[in-house]
Model the fold of this input.
Amino acid sequence: MVLYARQDLLTRDSLELPDTWEELLALATRYNGTDLNNDTQPDFGICWPADEFNLAKLAMAIHASIMQSTGVAQGLFFNLRTGEPLLEQQGAAHSFALLEQLLALSPFAAYGPNHAAFDGHALDFKQGRCAFLAGTQ
Done:
């Protein structure tokens, strides 16, 4: 996953780049609904492509980083020793809650999952409509 940030906003507000999902959520929440590009329209805390393909990749990035915080031996969907599902674990619930909260701060909430795919979100970011842009390679 790649995260782009409006450094001009962070510098103006004496803020640092986020190091965690929770920090990204806090910053995206701070900027969401404010006019970031001086066009008198409310803008978005974060933009990211949320079509079927890209949403799955972004969800995996969040989920894996939380579920496997100390390495892949922790398993992702199943306990590697017992085969027991891990989706009922607190980490899984936390990762999906973060995804839901971040999506609510993006054009996905207003326009749905196929809002111009990645190119549209990149254009939104370039036009100053998003404080952050997340994508995958």
Remarks:
- The longest strand covers residues 130-135.
